[in-house]
Specification:
Layout lengths: L6 E4 L4 H12 L6 E4 L7 H8 L5 E5 L2 E5 L4 H11 L10 E4 L2 E4 L3 H14 L1
Parallel strand pairs: 1-2, 3-6
Antiparallel strand pairs: 1-5, 3-4, 5-6
């Protein structure tokens, strides 16, 4: 796989972020841009701008995950709800591989996101 990790939003002392960091290291990736979610917060409007040019957007919540097309109005509303945290900010961890965005941690989802990014290259 040749996809690069362009952007990574993480939060210290977060179990999901620790798992995603371990996955990133295991894959031999290094984020070009790394953001601390405690220092920089993205509200819904800013989060939507981040994913605007991306397709698909993968979102994991709990033990399940889903791929969304942000351009499809039927999928956009559900995607917005799942990508935002309880305080109205973008959930961490969030990763961008080229034009593929992944929010939350689910190992299978991250593999699918990376594979989708490779296919888009």
């Amino acid at each position: 796989m040749t996809s690069e990790l362009d952007w990574y939003l993480h939060r210290k002392n977060c179990a999901s972020c620790a798992k995603s960091q371990a996955w990133i290291l295991e894959q031999g990736l290094e984020a070009i841009e790394q953001i601390d979610a405690r220092k920089e917060r993205f509200d819904e409007q800013q989060a939507l701008q981040l994913v605007a040019g991306c397709a698909p957007v993968f979102v994991a919540r709990g033990k399940s995950w889903q791929a969304y097309d942000p351009q499809d109005p039927a999928q956009a509303a559900e995607m917005r709800k799942k990508m935002m945290g309880p305080h109205g900010t973008l959930r961490a961890p969030a990763l961008r591989f080229g034009k593929v965005f992944a929010i939350g941690f689910h190992e299978e989802m991250l593999q699918a996101a990376r594979a989708a990014a490779d296919q888009a290259e």
